[in-house]
Amino acid sequence: MRIERAELRHVELPLVFPFETSFGREETKECVLVRLYAGGLEGWGEAPAARAPLYNEETVGTAWHVLEEFILPLLLGRDLPNPRAFPPLVRHLRRHHMAKAGVEAALWDLFCQAEGRPLAQALGGTRGVVDVGVSLGIEDDVDTLLRRIEEFLGRGYRRIKVKIKPEWDVAVVRRIRDRFGAIRLQVDANSAYTPAHFPLLRELDDFDLLLIEQPLGEDDIVDHAALQAQLRTPICLDESIVTPDDARKALDLGSCRVINIKAARLGGLTAGIQTHDLCRARGIPVWCGGLLETGIGRAANLALASLPNFLLPADLSASDRYFPEDLIEPPVTLNADGTITVPSGAGRGYEVRVDRVQRCTLRTTTVAP
Ligand code: OSB
Ligand code: MG
Question: Which architecture characterizes domain 5-116+350-367 according to CATH?
């Protein structure tokens, strides 16, 4: 299929409530949307780089720059046999994984539409519903967080993830356990701790958490191995796993027992599948993470999360957990049993509400060959 033209959009959407992690607080969601045109079809993808380089090194600005100047010019006017031909095309461009992932997702959407098949099926998905949870940020006080958890349990979420950081950890988890008992609970530190915190992190071992996500530095699988050896609770790596080969190394070292797969962090859906396959071959469970994606990015994550080795609940919530108004239709909804149904339509399986995309666009450009 010949890729004729591309459109980039820097969008900003209000969040239903602010999201605070150990690295900062977001009141709105910003990202770059990629729209590809080919043969009368439109493919959409999301590069979930944020406004500032806090989760990783990418930003809306870097993604825009690299997409416009380097990635899209390699693609436009070209005849691609399928989306798996895209990663080799951009392999020589170092990193910028979110930018690449946005284009790859749009290509998958295009090709699946052309073939009339759902994205999940093309990726190798094997289940029609995905078990999900909700990721909740740091709040001003524990009572506010407990009220949030109660609200989301009431909506039917059956797995809760809370963000932690030094001074907002053991006591918070204890209050959650005291209040809600044996719910499925996990924590995410986004790299907020150092080896000096090992005694404190060992205290978290008493709370039967599903996992402890990325406690230490994103560049440090060595100290994570030392910590995992002291814990009963599985460590799950997020930021540290940037390529499928990083997963191999972390597993060889014993740095974690679970891996969070975000196609955007890994450079695309193909790299996500490769990481999934590698973990599956080693008996390591994975789960699908999120970056507060709009419905466009979440549709791709949902399709990926339908692969067989996604064995723990995903950070994929209903549209109304994130936005007053999502960019897709129908919105993503939660089933009564705490799952989300994988759509059966061709491509991403949701309509893009271009009118809403237009309203939240801060900047747009067209790139042509
Ligand atoms: O570390 O998983 C993370 C959001 C922004 C940046 C990092 C992370 C997150 C989340 C959100 O936890 C999960 C979701 O999209 O629901
Ligand atoms: Mg994380």
Answer: 2-Layer Sandwich (3.30)
